[in-house]
Give the backbone structure.
Amino acid sequence: MQLKLLALGRDTLRVIAGLADTDVDYLGRFGPVSLTPVDFERLVASMLSKQGVGLRDFAVQHLEPLAGSDGEYKIDVTARFALGADFLVLIECKHQRRAVERDVVQVLADKVRSIGAQKGMVFATAPFQRGALEYARSHGVALVRVADGRTTYETKSAIPIRTYPSWLPRHVGWLTQLTRDGNESFASLGEVEIESLKDAFEPRTA
């Protein structure tokens, strides 16, 4: 299985690596994101707020209580905007070192159905297990890995990078999904590019 990585440079999106060894955690090579769970939730809310430019009536809320058909839930982060009709996205934040399992995605998908939201997203500091990726693809849940901002920067030089540009963001979100041929792919959301996030927000169609 080939691991395809897409990195957002200062101006362009380009392929930076193709790794045959999927045991290599490229996005985790700078270590785990050093934040408390609450600060991580706030970071996700901030990242989404920046990405929402261009979406009409876009609003993000942290720890919003919402009523579902089977009780009330307190959602880590919610995003609302108008996309022809009112659109609600539920975001689950997982601040952990172990890989995110399928049941995390499944529980979020159940909340989406119970509340009547249009989309679910999981933001995590750890990679996603294969089962989580497969379930997310089948049920239209978007998965985002939050990693060190230096993961977006590569050069063609064989010399190891010692100094990184000051304009790199501290943290970056990588939209993580399985391709049609079953490969795992990553696309950087960046700080100013919102097309990937808009795609993630689109409701799943049969």
DSSP finds four helices and nine strands in the chain. The CA atoms of residues 79 and 113 lie 16 Å apart. Residues 37-51 form the longest helix (15 residues). Residues 1-22, 191-197 have pLDDT under 50 and may be disordered.
